[in-house]
Amino acid sequence: MKVELTVNGEQHSGDVEPWRTLLSVLREDLGLTGTKSYCHSGACGACTVLLDGEPASACSLLAPQVRGRAVTTIEGLTPAGKGLTPQDAPLHPIQQAYIDHWGLQCGYCTPGMVLLTKALLDANPQPTDEEIVRHMSGNICRCTGYAGILESVRAAAAAMAGAETP
Predict the structure, then answer these.
(1) In which domain, by residue range, is 117 found?
(2) Total structural domains in the chain?
(3) Cα 144 from chain centroid?
(4) Looking at residue 142, what is its pLDDT?
(5) What is the pLDDT of residues 20-37, one digit of tens each?
(6) Is the pLDDT of residue 164 over 60?
(7) pTM of the prediction?
(8) DSSP track, the chain
(9) Which of 41, 76, 111 marks a domain boundary?
């Protein structure tokens, strides 16, 4: 089945079996391994991507379902450009906040958490703690205890608003 989609601002087109998930296409065909594979049921959040700017579980979407839509993975949050490689590009303020405020430990859930944070802050630039907790509740982290994640989201919101981080 012919599938055309935009991933991280780049057009991709190819034949895929109709039962292939977006997750498998991202990881296996496009080499975008930042999107993690864990539960394969949309319950853990490790495979979170942004689909037209909204969080979506890549493991529970078939590739043909996203035909013609825009997908953002963690690799697309800080696009390379102006002669920079992805390794040399500056981090997005959300990524930097997760580093600075210990919002990650093993890092497995981090890409999904970062993208979920992006969706939250795009919709609500100054969320309350309750709104942050509710929004992030679909992503499971087994390492941080969530305090660092909450602090990271707060710091990212402040950084993106141009304020001092708390």
Answers:
(1) 93-160
(2) 2
(3) 18
(4) 87
(5) 999 999 999 999 999 999
(6) no
(7) 0.91
(8) -EEEEEETTEEEEEE--TT-BHHHIIIIIS--TTS--S-SSSSS-TTEEEETTEEEEGGGSBGGGGTT-EEE-GGGTS---TT--TTTSPPPHHHHHHHHTT--SS-SSHHHHHHHHHHHHHH-SS--HHHHHHHHTTS--SSS-SHHHHHHHHHHHHHHTTPPP-
(9) 76
Residue 85 within any structural domain of the chain: no
Residue 105, Cβ density class (10 Å: 0-12 exposed, 13-18 middle, ≥19 buried): middle
| Whether residue 11 is found in the same domain as residue 72 | yes
In whole angstroms, give the CA distance from residue 107 to residue 112: 10
111: CATH: 1.10.150.120
Q: Mean pLDDT over all residues of the chain?
A: 91
CATH value at residue 43? 3.10.20.30
